[in-house]
């Protein structure tokens, strides 16, 4: 697609954003790529190109080798903690302030939307900024500094794990319900930086589309299952998102 038609789509979606009553945004790892965090499915640098998820991101992997899974997870959590939100995260903070109703659903566990200033983010896959007990599920704020790796739950002595959703685990039902209800009710859904390969998140844009919402996809690659009624903007989220917000509201909020 040439630059002129991309500009046309940005203007078209900008106008739709200005008129929308309820905007839903679904984000994936691509929105944090410009903050220096690896995505999952990039052929060279993606986490799942370098590591095997069945050894690092499943309950069985944790039971087999809790130390390996804990150390790998904490390394990623540390990388996320040292990174900074980028212009795409900040554009979504402005979008939240501009539209009457806004729901931000993320598959990311890096906490960057909240650090940018977004409110009430639905973290479908949990957050690497939190830790919970593997046995009882209780979120834990701190633990005794001992030689144990992973550390032990201060309440029951069970092993601690990151509060993220691993392969083979169910999403928190209240989060999934809230995400699906928002997708069903919105008039515009913006999908940003996700390959759309992981369910149930991958179906959210199509739920919105079926209910008559406008669907716009921002991604470096072509990833959509269907075309036609979907507006696709190819580019870096950190450039496209600020452009979309400016197309809708030319004057920045002071
Ligand atoms: P993926 O790695 O599958 O997809 C990231 C997408 O972002 C790709 O389509 C890239 O082309 C695109 N992308 C990369 N850089 C970009 C940029 N700067 N701007 C715009 N797009 C860019 O990541 P997800 O779709 O988030 O699950 O993966 C979904 C889930 O799979 C993750 O939440 C994780 C993983 O297994 C769990 O951990 C449960």
The gist of it:
38% of the residues lie in helices and 18% in strands.
Can you walk me through this structure?
- By secondary structure, the chain is an alpha/beta fold.
- The protein has a single domain (4-248), classed as 3-Layer(aba) Sandwich (Rossmann fold), CATH 3.40.50.1220.
- Helices cover 38% and strands 18% of the residues.
- The chain has helices at 3-19, 47-50, 53-56, 59-64, 66-82, 87-98, 112-116, 173-185, 204-210, 237-248, and strands at 22-27, 101-106, 122-123, 126-133, 139-140, 160-164, 188-192, 214-219, 230-234.
- The strands form 2 sheets. The chain has a 6-stranded parallel beta sheet with strand order 3-2-1-7-8-9, sandwiched between helices.
- α7 (112-116) links the parallel β2 (101-106) and β3 (122-123).
- α1 (3-19) packs across α10 (237-248), α6 (87-98) runs parallel beside α10 (237-248) and α8 runs parallel beside α9 (204-210).
- The longest helix has 17 residues, at 3-19.
- The protein starts with a helix and ends in a 6-residue tail after the last helix.
- The relative contact order is 0.20.
- The mean pLDDT is 94.
- The site of 2'-O-acetyl adenosine-5-diphosphoribose has 24 residues, from β8.
- Residues 28-30, 33-34, 39-41, 46, 107, 125, 165, 193-195, 197-198, 218-221, 223, 236-237 line the site of 2'-O-acetyl adenosine-5-diphosphoribose.
